[in-house]
Design a protein that fits this description.
The structure is a homodimer of 363-residue chains. Chain A is an alpha+beta fold and 363 residues long. In chain A, 18% of the residues lie in helices and 44% in strands. The first copy, chain A, is elongated. The relative contact order of chain A is 0.11. At the A-B interface, helix 2, strand 9, helix 5 and strand 21 of A face helix 2, strand 9, helix 5 and strand 21 of B. Strand 9 of chain A pairs antiparallel with strand 21 of chain B, so a sheet runs across the interface.
């Protein structure tokens, strides 16, 4: 293999694939990045066996061929260079890298031993603008569970139906749901591992279309320069819609920033009491309370538009702050049934299409 | 105690003293901040027994008194507030904090049990602009040792003599020395613990005079709003000037950024070989080399003004990069005797007043 590529593009491609390189795999070759040159195309690939990525580099191919080299070292080294072009040549499993003033040799391993990152052959179920998808991931994914004992909850649930994409995530203590209008004639539903979701989010740096292609147990996202493939989480996602309250006794419209800063203040007092903050809904005012036998107590008073019955509920400050952090409208609504029912939190906006649910704590 | 203070100033003061609060002390009261109100002055204090700080808050004193409260919690909580003023009242060892919309109570401990942070009574040995001192600390302190087995090297050595302040730090592998003209009639020398030096550096946010006052085993730095006191490291600093070569066989003038980026590239190959990078000085060119039996090899070529004999030396890339990171002139000079003698590195500037020495590695 002998190729010549733009150093900037090589840095960018390595930045993308390097994150997928398994960091401490029992299979040493998974710590490597595959560089493959054929026809007029140079491809970088990495995989941790759950996820794989192909990055299309462009560049000039003098001789086709391939090699794998340690991903972390290659990335660090290449990032420290500052020339325009780099020439890469493979000889006897050693990669020779040359720029105008420097040259390096990196010991590699044959490409034959590298697990392929196959293209997923299946149906395209969706094409969506990357920045819309990225924003939706940001609003939803944080509610997914990190607890591997219920694998089904460690992903983001996608449902495409009737021209709508719904994305949901829950760890059973809180739930996020986002709804987006899409052009799709195919109905489908699948659960994407949270790790894949976050890597995809990082890869969507430009505004372009992402295509989603599904096979029986694999998913592939294609962008202009790259393909990300991943396993799908198998099983049936819980029917979360049944926990969403349909009618409410109390509705509060509050200033988002003011509520967040008061809950933040309360959180320091709530820490040793399971992060328990109590919200008391009174006519036109919300009281925020936290108590700690060891530390002391906190109480504050917010004005707001509160309609319906007087009510109260206790939330985990962490979950409430997570949600308020994602809401970027000036006002937020909190809807309650009673202190033992889930609370529903939404941005106040005529085109709000995201909903958060937090389960109450016993106070 | 009952006082009213500006919330902004209270935040700033807590930000300063909170860092000195011992984080996991066996003496629980050292986790606390002392709030003391007397006459028309409110003072915040914290100490970890090695270092202490008094911060003068200003504010309105209604009733004099004092209390200590957990520093970390107080700091986090106060930082989350966003009013203009805060009222603080002590009753039965509880601190009641009130702003316009919120109120909190924090359980405290009596001030009587708090170790005093005494003013150091001694002679003023120096008054110097804080930003000049801050820049000098930045250039010198990183060479101090972190190894407690030779306590004398875990500080920065100050020598005031003949209208000059010299500051030096060394861990016996590399040395930094800075010289500054000062107005001082008192000669003195003392070793300041590196932790004190770094805290002082963070506290010098404004351009103002710092006064340094010395007693037998204590030092005090006074700024407009605060006093920082610390122990001095006892013992005699090594006579480091005797290791500084007086005559050289080779001098190289190189572009600082170019050298740094080439050494950085080499460093990834040098890692498994004790960070060993070899510099080969040839007529008008410097070769940078690193080799690793496992990873591979790196070699690059820099043009530069090299005078004297051809020469070579091996350095620890980490020490060399540390030094190059501090040099902000376009060019840097490296002066050598031979490959077993220390190398001397300086910024190229007519008013350069800093010198770095790095001991060679055997290559």
């Amino acid at each position: 293999m002998k190729i010549s590529v733009s150093l900037d593009r090589f840095k960018k491609g390595l930045g993308v694939v390097e994150r997928i390189v398994a960091s401490k795999s029992t299979l040493p070759i998974l710590n490597n990045v595959l560089i493959r040159a054929e026809d007029s195309q140079v491809v970088l690939s990495a995989t941790d066996l759950e996820m794989g990525v192909n990055y299309y580099l462009g560049g000039k191919v003098e001789t086709a061929g391939s090699i794998t080299v340690p991903g972390r070292v290659l990335g660090n080294f290449i990032n420290s260079l500052s020339d325009d072009k780099i020439t890469l040549e493979e000889k006897s499993n050693v990669l020779y890298a040359k720029t105008e003033r420097s040259e390096a040799s990196l010991n590699g391993m044959p490409a034959d031993d590298f697990p392929t990152v196959p293209k997923v052959e299946g149906k395209e179920v969706l094409s969506i603008n990357s920045q819309i998808l990225k924003a939706a991931i940001n609003e939803v994914a944080f509610s997914a569970s990190l607890d591997e004992s219920r694998p089904i909850l460690t992903g983001v649930y996608f449902v495409i139906s009737n021209g709508l994409l719904k994305m949901a995530a829950t760890d059973s203590f809180r739930l996020s749901e986002k709804t987006i209008k899409v052009n799709s004639s195919e109905d489908a539903s699948f659960i994407i591992p949270i790790k894949t979701i976050y890597e995809l989010q990082r890869m969507m740096t430009l505004s372009e279309d992402v295509k989603i292609i599904i096979s029986e147990n694999q998913i592939m996202f294609t962008l202009t320069d790259l393909e990300l493939t991943s396993r799908i989480i198998e099983g049936e996602y819980p029917d979360y819609e049944q926990v969403v309250p349909k009618a409410f006794k109390t509705t509060a419209i509050l200033n988002t920033g003011e509520l967040a800063s008061n809950v933040k203040s309360a959180s320091f007092f709530a820490k040793e009491n399971a992060n328990n903050v109590k919200l008391l809904f009174k006519p036109n005012s919300l009281e925020v309370e936290a108590t700690s036998s060891q530390l002391g107590n906190f109480k504050s008073n917010l004005t707001g538009q509160i309609t319906g019955e007087e009510n109260e509920i206790s939330f985990n400050t962490k979950y409430l702050l997570d949600v308020l952090d994602k809401i970027n409208t000036e006002e937020v609504s909190i809807e309650l049934v009673g202190k033992l029912n889930p609370g529903v939190i939404k941005p106040v906006s005529k085109d709000a299409n995201v909903m958060y649910i937090i389960m109450p704590l016993r106070s």
